[in-house]
Amino acid sequence: MSSLSDQVIVFTGAGAGIGRSVVSRYINEGARVVAVDISSAVESLRDEFGDKVIPLVADVSTWEGNLAAANAATEAWGKIDVFVGNAGITDAARPLEDIPGDRLGAAFGELFGVNVLAPMLGVRACLDELIKSQGNVILTGSYASSNAGGGGALYTASKHAVLGLVKQLAYELAPDVRVNGVAPGVAPTRLKGTGSLGQAAADSVLDGTREALPLQEVSGVDAYNEVFTLLASRVGTAAMTGTMVSVDSGLSIRGIGKPGGRVRRDGDN
Ligand SMILES: NC(=O)c1ccc[n+]([C@@H]2O[C@H](COP(=O)([O-])OP(=O)(O)OC[C@H]3O[C@@H](n4cnc5c(N)ncnc54)[C@H](O)[C@@H]3O)[C@@H](O)[C@H]2O)c1
Q1: What is the distance in A from the centroid of ligand 1 to the CA of 161?
Q2: Cβ(18) to ligand 1 under 6 A?
Q3: How far, in Å, CA of 47 to CA of 91, rounded?
Q4: Which of 22, 73, 85, 169 is least crowded, fewest Cβ atoms below 10 Å from its Cβ?
Q5: Cβ neighbours around 253 below 10 Å, total
Q6: What is the DSSP-derived secondary structure letter of residue 169?
Q7: Hey, which residues are catalytic here?
Q8: Does ligand 1 come within 6 angstroms of the Cβ of 140?
Q9: 241: helix, strand or coil
């Protein structure tokens, strides 16, 4: 039996990047998935996975978008076992001093709408079903959930809020629903920017990123599949709740002189 046999999963931010990769793994592990994204790119999952996936184009920063996702799962498959809040946008690490004061409110609303409000709305929309199924929630945090310098003030504050949400919801929903998170370091994707700051999508991997990582390797988008699968499974992580699992190539233990103790630099003998 596969680890997610018969599990029904509502997954946001499923159209690209980390989300698309994890959704593919979930289905290969036996799950059926409502795959939500604001981009119609999510619809191509149907060609790959047929009736094991319901692609849904919706804005998860709205209540209606989340309700539609929860309803799609219960109408098709009669239950929800797991909600994954993964959709996110970035501020492209823009410092606070470079954001005009009169645009800050709109930028905050937009970025927190996707990164913080959306997972709250998603959990709320799926909650009755999650309690019924004694299911679990997984939220995508970030290296920026616990550290500075992984984004600008808006993104970092929003991902710290995701960590707070994981802990608070784990408390509120125990013992019925487990709540955990995954905190990626750097993944090779093109996160959308904040429209109200005029930001387009941009590469997450920059010149010098690889060299800055203690493990000296930018992992592929599939580097998170195993952890997301373990957290979604009813067996492997039954005793885990309120935890943010770091998958950050060592970023949070990076050194001052060199990123990792055994990293070789030019001139080392
Ligand atoms: N790429 C990285 O280096 C990195 C690092 C740490 C954390 N993360 C987090 O990982 C998660 C996935 O990001 P990714 O890197 O795979 O980027 P991505 O842009 O490839 O995937 C994010 C998806 O969310 C969707 N989305 C954005 N706003 C939405 C909305 N309002 N409604 C519905 N869908 C929406 C996008 O269309 C996109 O398909 C995000 O939460 C991000 O903050 C990424």
Answers
A1: 16
A2: yes
A3: 33
A4: 169
A5: 11
A6: H
A7: 155
A8: yes
A9: coil
Q: Is 147 in the pocket of ligand 1 (CB under 6 A)?
A: no
Question: Which residues on neighbouring strands pair with residue 140, listed in sequence order?
Answer: 182
- The one-letter amino acid code at 227 reads V
Please report, for the chain, the start and end positions of each structural domain, with discontinuous segments joined by +.
Answer: 8-253
Residue with tokens 């499974």: 233
116 lines ligand 1 (CB under 6 A): no
* Ligand 1 atom 14, closest CA: 17
Instruction: Say how many Å lie between the CA of residue 139 and the centre of ligand 1.
Output: 12
Q: Is 81 in the pocket of ligand 1 (CB under 6 A)?
A: no
Question: Any idea which fold 8-253 has?
Answer: Rossmann fold (3.40.50)
54, amino acid identity: I
First vs last Cα of the chain: how many Å apart? Answer: 51
Query: Are 18 and 184 within 8 A, CB to CB?
Result: yes
Identify whether the C-beta of residue 153 lies closer than 8 Å to the C-beta of residue 161. no
**Helix or strand run (H / E) with residue 157:** helix 153-173
pLDDT in tens, 115-170: 999 999 999 999 999 999 999 999 999 999 999 999 999 999 999 999 999 999 99
d(CA 90, CA 85): 15
The string over 173-194, giving b where at least 16 C-beta atoms fall within 10 Å of a residue's C-beta and e elsewhere, is beeebbbbbbbbbbbebebbbb
CA 22 to chain centre: 10
Cα 20 to averaged position of ligand 1 atoms, centre (Å): 10
